[in-house]
């Protein structure tokens, strides 16, 4: 890709942030509404002694919360990433960056700063970089390492967004040989590799392939939160591309619900992040009870980030308070205890899981 493509890439990044802030891009049906944690009337622990810390890819986080990959690649996103990173650093949680393709391929200092600002703002935070699976086929290992070095990343996320690409008028719809490329990067990269979906979930079968490839973590990013198909439908409408608009709208609700995807992935991998419609500390607690190591959120942090790091910190502290309360009333002093707590599945989630596993 040459520098002349810079306006197109930057415009797309700007479109995404604007649409998420201004339009209806939420879906429902994460499955968390069907997960009920069993109340413990005699917790026998002191609330203040509850330990929310967790080990994540050989680092300790103060709480099992991840600021999911959102943005980067446009000058307008620099202050958003600065606020998110500073908040992640001050609260001790993890943060992912948006796709770094623009940072690798465009000769533009403001684009590069939109990524590098994260490490500058949070020297000690767990920050992970981000590239698309389709780009891994095109890049040599040295180029992928440049993405890591760009932000001094503690890990690299490889995102799977083929539904989004299918709806984009300019999308990359070649889904061949991505698993081979992931395998190659896992084997040679200097940092752990996370493979994440972008709102449509990961099945047990796909998780098994990723585990066999040696990926260090799986982020399910299931159905029930921000719909990238819907976002691209809005972009297609603005670009007078009616076919892509219709397809994007049709597939707004497509995917594996986050709770179901979490249940499936934890059977195949021992480091699973549950994201996709996670909206509270109680959702995080439910995800951990299902077997996840952490819960991830993206859109809920976007508006606070535009106000500055203090607003993001307040949001994180709210989430931790909600999580801590869920731990208290399930008698869970640690995250490991919460992973073993009892829960009941109801409704569509129970039916979905039963059909997928052959059990009632």
From TrEMBL:
Residues that span the membrane, as ranges: none
Catalytic activity: isopentenyl diphosphate = dimethylallyl diphosphate
EC number(s) reported in the record: 5.3.3.2
Keyword Metal-binding: yes
Location within or outside the cell: Cytoplasm
UniProt domain FMN-dependent dehydrogenase: residue ranges: 26-100, 179-341
Broad EC category: isomerase
GO molecular function annotation: FMN binding; isopentenyl-diphosphate delta-isomerase activity; magnesium ion binding; NADPH binding; oxidoreductase activity
InterPro entries assigned: Aldolase_TIM, FMN-dep_DH, IPdP_isomerase
Subunit structure: Homooctamer. Dimer of tetramers.
Its job: Involved in the biosynthesis of isoprenoids. Catalyzes the 1,3-allylic rearrangement of the homoallylic substrate isopentenyl (IPP) to its allylic isomer, dimethylallyl diphosphate (DMAPP).
Family per similarity comment: Belongs to the IPP isomerase type 2 family.
NCBIfam families in UniProt: IPP_isom_2
Protein name: Isopentenyl-diphosphate delta-isomerase
Species this chain originates from: Halorubrum vacuolatum (Natronobacterium vacuolatum)
Gene responsible for this protein: fni
């Amino acid at each position: 890709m040459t520098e002349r493509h810079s306006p197109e890439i930057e415009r797309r990044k700007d479109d995404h942030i604007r649409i998420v802030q201004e339009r209806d891009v939420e879906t429902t049906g994460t499955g968390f509404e069907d997960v009920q944690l069993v109340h413990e009337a005699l917790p026998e622990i002191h609330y203040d002694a509850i330990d929310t810390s967790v080990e994540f890819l050989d680092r300790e986080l103060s709480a099992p919360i991840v600021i999911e990959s959102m943005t980067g690649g446009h000058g307008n996103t620099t202050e958003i990433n600065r606020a998110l990173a500073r908040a992640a650093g001050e609260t001790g949680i993890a943060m992912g960056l948006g796709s770094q393709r623009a940072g690798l391929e465009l000769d533009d200092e403001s684009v590069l700063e939109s990524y590098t600002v994260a490490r500058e703002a949070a020297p000690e935070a767990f920050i992970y970089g981000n590239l698309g699976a389709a780009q891994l086929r095109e890049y040599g290992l040295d180029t992928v390492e440049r993405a890591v070095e760009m932000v001094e990343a503690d890990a690299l996320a490889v995102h799977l967004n083929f539904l989004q690409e299918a709806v984009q008028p300019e999308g990359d719809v070649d889904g061949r040989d991505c698993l081979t490329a992931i395998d190659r990067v896992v084997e040679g990269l200097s940092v752990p590799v996370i493979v994440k979906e972008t709102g449509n979930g990961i099945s047990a079968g796909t998780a098994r392939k990723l585990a066999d490839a040696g990926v260090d973590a799986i982020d399910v990013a299931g159905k029930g939160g921000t719909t990238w198909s819907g976002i691209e439908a809005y972009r297609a409408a603005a670009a007078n591309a009616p076919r892509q608009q219709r397809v994007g709208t049709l597939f707004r609700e497509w995917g594996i619900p986050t709770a179901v995807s979490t249940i499936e992935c934890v059977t195949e991998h021992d480091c699973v992040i549950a994201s996709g419609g996670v909206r509270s500390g109680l959702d995080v607690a439910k995800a951990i009870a299902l077997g996840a190591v952490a819960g991830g959120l993206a859109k809920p942090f976007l508006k606070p980030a535009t106000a500055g790091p203090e607003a993001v910190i307040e949001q994180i502290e709210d989430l931790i308070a909600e999580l801590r309360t869920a731990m208290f009333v399930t008698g869970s002093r640690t995250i490991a205890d919460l992973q073993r707590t009892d829960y009941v599945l109801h409704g569509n989630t129970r039916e979905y899981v039963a059909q997928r596993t052959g059990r009632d």
